[in-house]
Amino acid sequence: TLTTKFLGRTYTSPLMNGAGVRCTTVEELEALRQSSAGSFVTKTATREPRAGNPGHRMSALPYGSINSMGLPNKGLPYYLDYLTSLPDQGANNFLSVAGFSEEDQMAVLETIAASDFAGIVELNLSCPNIPGHPQLAYDFDATDKLLAKVFDRFDNLELGVKLPPFFDPIHFDQIAAVLNKYPIKYANSINSLGNGFFVDPETDAPMIEPKGGFGGIGGGYAKPTALANVRALHERLRDDIALIGTGGVQTGRDVYDLILCGASMVQVATAFGPEGVAVFDRLNGELQSILDSKGYADVTSTVGQLHTV
Ligand code: DHB
Q: For residues 245 and 223, what is the distance between their CA atoms, to the nearest angstrom?
């Protein structure tokens, strides 16, 4: 089977969408809910609805994608209404949220805490595309300060963090030291490789319009960095902090590698765009074949089973 345990819940597959792709509307979320994905996460919600950045803002690249969406979303109440209307009040699903200041973040969490939402909150600390707002988790002190406030105020939110990619062992140490101070339930690595750039060979211009062409990179380009971040956090975080692996998943092998490195759920973003929910059927099949051939009975027993050379 592909059974995986996550935050005391049992899922029939570790696969789900990554926040952002095909998860903005109720129609898209319903398609995910009825798919063979084990769970789903919403588009990152902000207090107010947002149109996002203007112009052509997402493109396929030879080995992945570039985007500068700017957090277009229908606003927190829309997602809370949908999730709380589900038979289980969204107990097994993920609500991704972001705020633009500490006050804004806290207000978002207040609204969730006051709702009947029974699921998991994913705090996006890593959107690369909002002019004037850095990827918060690159500022370790600011992240520490925010989490101190969050957990001072809320002690029963089931909350995880979506992290940007880190590229230095010292930075792995630093983010892990901050996260280990708080009762976070999980870390999700990685968000896009922030602020990449690509020249359109047809036009000699940037591939996307917002921010002068700078945008988050996903797809195949992200896989080694995703594996590095999941592995590094698996080695550093408290044992009770679960991991979601995200980045560059195109095949069952990619899913398996993230699981070996420590992920108990795996998200698919770039590949989910063109393939739609059929990607989960395909990846479930490919992953099951690998687990069978390796002799693993389920995903839970495979998590972190990286071999030493
Ligand atoms: C957005 C894009 C991303 O690539 C991301 O990681 C988070 C948010 C966005 O612009 O909406």
A: 10
